[in-house]
Design a protein that fits this description.
Low-confidence stretches: none
CATH superfamily: Jelly Rolls
Mean pLDDT: 90
Number of helices: 4
CATH class: Mainly Beta
Helix content: 10-25%
Largest sheet: 9 strands, antiparallel
Strand content: 35-45%
Order of helices and strands: EEHEHEHEEEEEEEH
CATH topology: Jelly Rolls
Number of domains: 1
CATH architecture: Sandwich
Structural class: alpha+beta
Bound molecules: the ligand CSCCC(=O)/C(O)=C/O, fe (ii) ion
Distance between the termini: 32 Å
Number of strands: 11
Shape: globular
């Protein structure tokens, strides 16, 4: 069962739960434009991808035990994923095995954390600020689906990064229209 809740800021590592004890309903996540589905068949994932006109995909494994370059390289990769960012297109993440946390910003800039595990699928809309990390188990295998030609470059949120801030304003405006 997926677990969604407000993130608690504290000194524990990013891979700790940071559970504020304040749950968030999947419907609230949907209001932010993020869709959660539990899908236990690859064929259904493929159908969804076709319906939504996804053209590209890759598989990613983040595993403390096997990551090329070892744990240091994995931690560097996790730092990239945990740096708040947006994608220019809608993207899907489907968990094949393991666990992880996706954090998305709500309209008040509070982090909403979703604990994802095997067969959980998230549709992240274009322009939502988010980040990802592993849980303390330090293992996930996921399918990443991209609408278009692979755009691996994510726009990071940096003060003064007007390009991404403009993108974000447009995104929230589009939710209310
Ligand atoms: C488990 S998917 C790897 C992380 C990723 O692709 C992403 O976009 C994080 O924000
Ligand atoms: Fe991302």
């Amino acid at each position: 069962m997926v677990k969604i809740y407000y993130y608690k800021e504290d000194d524990s590592p990013m891979t700790a739960p940071h559970d504020s004890g304040e749950p968030v309903a999947a419907e609230e996540l949907e209001k932010l434009g993020v869709f959660y589905k539990y899908i236990d068949s690859q064929a259904s994932v493929d159908n969804l991808a076709t319906e939504r006109q996804y053209k590209n995909r890759d598989y990613i494994t983040l595993d403390g035990a096997t990551f090329p370059g070892g744990e240091e390289a994995l931690n560097a990769k996790l730092d990239v994923f945990f740096n708040e960012h947006i994608h220019e297109d809608e993207e899907i993440r489907y968990i094949i095995d393991g666990t992880g946390y996706f954090d998305v910003r709500d309209n008040n800039d509070r982090w909403v954390r979703t604990l994802v595990e095997k067969y959980d699928l998230l549709i992240l809309p274009a322009g939502i600020y988010h980040r990802f990390t592993l849980t303390d188990d330090k293992f996930v295998k996921a399918l990443r689906l991209f609408k278009d030609e692979p755009k691996w470059v994510a726009l990071n949120r940096i003060d003064g990064n007007t390009e991404s801030n403009e993108f974000r304003k447009e995104y929230f405006a589009s939710l209310s229209s």
